[in-house]
């Protein structure tokens, strides 16, 4: 048993920290986070060049890593920097294209192709069925798609989409050229962009005819990534709150002198350590037999602790954290809204419950 | 990072499991699995078996007859022991006084007392708390006045766990009333046969007897029984409170308790189906299972990072570990519905038994374990310790 990060992963961490400090200054984040296409081309390019996407892919898929701990290493740093670049959909795409054995994987790993993954629909959240989007096959892997996909993260900046749709009663996965769909983009409350995607006889290429297994594996990897992003955010909120408790004075003393706040802060710190632990456990298990259930355990706990940490950080800061100006408000929003991506705490709790008798 | 145990660690685990399978008396294991309290005779029987193997003092160095195991080995042993149904060993001599004597005792004290702890000659109990000094030990008032080469002790101790079985007690006593309250406290060893000591049982919330109050009236104790320096007992008290780190999170015990909880929930019925399939109840079990999984890794992370003397991470483990265990007890009690209500003896009465004998104690266990967040320094005191650590580091 060994809890030390490998030398390679420490180097990726440090390199990402330097890159993100330069490119993703929280103070200047608004420009990218709330303006179409909600991504900065220079930041994306820099991430690609330093190997951030390559770390998310196995060697067979043209990458350098792809293990659970590679995913958590990258996303924890993205979380710390509150980076709103759509790296998560790229991770999902890399996973899915690798599963499909598609030669498109390489362009995703280099970041030259920018992917969004369209699964959720207005009435189907976090589930693969019953999807309403339907495919009509024209042979030779060519198809047309009809339906609507909802809150498709990263779609405004995407060059390509991966779309889940029903084909012959099964959930299949298709590649679609982003320019071929009708796309209504918007900013998200926590920054970054998504879109409503309309498929109207949209030409598509079949990648996987029976895609449930591949989709579940990719969604597990994505949920793990979100957990790690959350841990990175929690660390920042903890440090910022601690600093504030020591400097902000009320009634003539630092507010950190009040036991009511001291104990709340300690409880927060404990929950953050628990969050780190379950995320590491999920990273270790990801590709193993109990990987899916362990990821769901992590995503549930992160859903619970994420909201707690966000709310407590705001409460302990008081009014200042209610302002757009102060970074805590943005970190708190992202940490809370993570629970609205790839399955919320209840969704994942159902999955854990389903395995209680095992 | 690598969460697999190494081949050496797995081999160690297998060795522990083999030993437990071969040497843990079946009747004792069955009692533990049924959740019965283990009496003095069975405890001593099991401790003697462990001592023969050299596995009794998990945390001591080999030079003093301990295992010399590292924290991960101790953890692996602890988990395997709970799984097998081994009763807990009595911590007062093994996990509390032993490490104190190894760190602060004279060679004479070490040579005399440590072997007696191992071979069962002495059963120690702890004289820390007083009616006015629980987690706030600095305000303790039991006095030890010097009279030649003796101390004369007067005062009262309370919450003395399993003191009814003990022949010795280690006490914090006030040897000076000058300076700050933490100063002027000394750590002394007292033979319970000394004239002037009276021990009275305290009946607890669930009806059991495990704690006592101890009265001292002009009790004469040789000065040679002082451990460390006079008036420096606070250092020892702090050392001792932080010392038990391996088992403090109670991961092994809680995992066993979770297994039992699932069994109860699978055999109880509500609304025509097994309780474990009831979404609300299943959700509560699932959440505490998740909390416990995180706790297990937190525990191992902290053990693997811990170097040298115990640090404040013990406080974090104590808070989270006790709350998780209390939650498990709470769910196990609620899983029985009305059948949790009968007093254990009545619940087990012959043909009219409502539940099996493991489950009959669920409500009692729930009530008894409310103590977990109170004793050993209440969870609020642990939060104060952690506050000092985090805010102290910044300033």
Summarize this structure as a short list of keywords or feature phrases:
heterodimer, A: 358 residues, 11 helices, 9 strands, 49% helix, B: 395 residues, alpha+beta, 13 helices, 47% helix
What does it look like?
- The complex is a heterodimer of chains A (358) and B (395).
- In chain A, 49% of the residues lie in helices and 17% in strands.
- Chain A has 11 helices and 9 strands.
- The model of chain A has no long low-confidence stretch (mean pLDDT 95).
- Helices cover 47% and strands 15% of the residues of chain B.
- Chain B is built from 13 helices and 10 strands.
- Chain B has helices at 7-23, 26-34, 40-53, 71-84, 91-104, 107-119, 233-243, 251-267, 279-305, 313-334, 344-347, 362-368, 379-394, and strands at residues 124-127, 143-147, 150-157, 168-174, 185-191, 197-203, 209-222, 226-227, 269-270, 273-274.
- Chain B has a 4-stranded mixed sheet with strand order 1-4-5-8. A 4-stranded antiparallel sheet of chain B has the order 2-3-7-6, with no helix packed on it.
- In chain B, helix 5 (91-104) packs antiparallel against helix 6 (107-119) and helix 10 (313-334) runs antiparallel to helix 13 (379-394).
- The relative contact order of chain B is 0.09.
- The mean pLDDT of chain B is 90.
- The A-B interface holds A 1-6, 69, 242-243, 245-246, 256, 259, 262-263, 265-267, 269-270, 273-278, 280-281, 283-284, 294, 297, 300-301, 304, 349-350, 352-353, 356-357 and B 1-6, 9, 72, 262, 266, 276, 279, 282-283, 285-287, 289-291, 293-298, 300-301, 304-305, 316, 319-320, 380, 383-384, 386-387, 390-391, 394-395.
């Amino acid at each position: 048993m060994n809890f030390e990060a490998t030398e390679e992963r420490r180097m990726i961490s440090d390199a990402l920290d330097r890159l993100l400090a330069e490119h993703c200054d929280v103070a200047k984040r608004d420009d990218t986070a709330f303006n179409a296409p909600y991504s900065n081309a220079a930041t994306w390019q820099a991430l690609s060049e330093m190997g951030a996407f390559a770390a998310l892919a196995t060697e067979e898929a043209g990458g350098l890593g792809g293990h659970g701990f590679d995913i958590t290493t990258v996303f924890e740093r993205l979380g710390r920097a509150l980076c709103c670049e759509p790296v998560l959909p790229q991770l999902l795409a890399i996973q899915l294209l690798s599963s499909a054995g598609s030669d498109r994987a390489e362009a995703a790993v280099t970041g030259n192709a920018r992917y969004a993954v369209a699964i959720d629909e207005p009435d189907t959240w976090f589930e693969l069925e019953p999807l309403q989007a339907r495919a009509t096959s024209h042979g030779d892997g060519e198809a047309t798609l009809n339906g609507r996909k909802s809150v498709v993260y990263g779609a405004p900046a995407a060059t390509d989409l991966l779309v889940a749709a029903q084909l012959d009663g099964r959930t299949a996965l298709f590649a679609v050229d982003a320019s071929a769909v009708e796309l209504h983009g918007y900013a998200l409350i926590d920054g970054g962009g998504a879109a409503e995607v309309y498929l109207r006889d949209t030409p598509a290429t079949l990648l996987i005819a029976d895609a449930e297994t591949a989709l579940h594996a990719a969604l597990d990897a994505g949920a793990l990534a979100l957990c790690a992003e959350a841990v990175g955010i929690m660390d920042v909120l903890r440090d910022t709150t601690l600093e504030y408790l020591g400097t902000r004075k009320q009634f003539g003393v630092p507010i950190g002198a009040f036991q009511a706040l001291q104990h709340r802060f300690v409880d927060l710190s404990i929950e953050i350590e628990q969050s780190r632990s379950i995320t590491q456990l999920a990273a270790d298990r990801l590709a193993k037999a109990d990987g899916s259930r362990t990821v769901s355990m992590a995503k549930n706990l992160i859903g619970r602790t994420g909201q707690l940490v966000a709310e407590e950080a705001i409460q302990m800061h008081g009014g200042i954290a209610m302002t757009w100006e102060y970074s805590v408000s943005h970190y708190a929003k992202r940490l809370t809204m993570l629970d609205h991506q790839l399955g919320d705490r209840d969704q994942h709790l159902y999955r854990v419950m389903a395995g209680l008798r095992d | 990072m690598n969460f697999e145990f190494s081949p050496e660690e797995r081999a160690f685990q297998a060795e522990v499991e083999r030993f437990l399978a071969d040497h843990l008396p079946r009747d004792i294991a069955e009692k533990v699995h049924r959740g019965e309290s283990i009496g003095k005779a069975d405890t001593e029987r099991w401790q003697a078996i462990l001592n023969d193997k050299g596995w009794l003092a998990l945390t001591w160095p080999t030079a003093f007859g301990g295992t010399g195991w590292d924290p991960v080995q101790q953890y692996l042993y602890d988990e395997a022991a709970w799984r097998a149904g081994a009763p807990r060993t009595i911590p007062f001599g093994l996990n509390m006084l032993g490490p104190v004597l190894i760190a602060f005792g004279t060679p004479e004290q070490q040579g005399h007392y440590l072997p007696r702890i191992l071979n069962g000659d002495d059963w120690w109990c702890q004289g820390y708390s007083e009616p006015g000094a629980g987690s706030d030990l600095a305000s303790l008032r039991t006095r030890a006045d010097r009279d030649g080469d003796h101390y004369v002790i007067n005062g009262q101790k309370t919450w003395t766990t399993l003191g009814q079985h003990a022949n010795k007690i280690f006490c914090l006593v006030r040897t000076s009333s000058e300076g700050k309250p933490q100063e002027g406290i000394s750590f002394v060893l007292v033979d319970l046969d000394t004239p002037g000591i009276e021990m009275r049982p305290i009946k607890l919330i669930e009806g059991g007897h495990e704690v006592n109050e101890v009265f001292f009236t002009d009790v004469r104790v040789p000065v040679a029984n002082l451990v460390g320096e006079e008036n420096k007992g606070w250092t020892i008290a702090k050392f001792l409170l932080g010392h038990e780190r391996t088992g403090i999170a109670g991961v092994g015990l809680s995992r066993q308790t979770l297994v039992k909880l699932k069994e109860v929930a699978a055999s109880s019925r509500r609304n025509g189906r097994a309780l474990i399939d009831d979404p609300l109840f299943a959700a509560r079990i699932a959440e505490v299972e998740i909390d416990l999984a995180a706790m297990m890794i937190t525990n191992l992370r902290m053990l693997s990072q811990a170097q040298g003397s115990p640090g404040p991470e013990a406080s974090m483990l104590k808070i989270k570990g006790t709350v998780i265990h209390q939650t498990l007890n709470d769910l196990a009690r609620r899983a029985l519905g009305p059948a949790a209500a009968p007093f254990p003896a009545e619940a087990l009465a012959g043909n009219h038994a409502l539940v099996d004998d493991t489950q009959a104690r669920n409500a009692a266990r729930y009530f008894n374990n409310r103590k977990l967040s109170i004793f050993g320094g209440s969870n609020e005191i642990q939060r104060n310790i952690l506050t000092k650590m985090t805010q102290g580091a910044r300033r």
